[in-house]
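Morning!

This is the sequence you dropped in the shared folder:
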Amino acid sequence: MLLTEIDHVAIAVHDLEAAIAYYRSAFGAEVHHREIVERDGVEEALLKVADSYIQLTRPTRPDSPIAKYLEKRGEGLHHIGYRVDDCAAALASVLAAGGKAIDEAPRPGSRGTTVAFVHPKGSFGTLIELVQE
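The structure's back. Tokens below.
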């Protein structure tokens, strides 16, 4: 089994501060990590839930994937991140099984992770992020 656990569930939002405030007041959740990922044009806030995260994301520029998603679909579930021990091996397995990669090779992600995205067209409509810590 290449998947070791769910790393995060990503939710696209327009107003990151409002989303953080909601999760704080509704669930008592606090921000565990916050970062701007320039390459992807997003600001994220990670709320720790056991050994996984809720990743609240907002666009930092109009051409980012999150901005395009919000424009087309509105706020909501964007992708799921699966933790793996070896991102390159997991990506190769996805491709061998007929999946489609967005990232041709693993790349740096937030929190010092290594990541690769899998296209929803090859994974039953779900955008998947492979995350190696």
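Headline: The longest helix spans residues 16-27.

More detail when I'm at my desk.
O.
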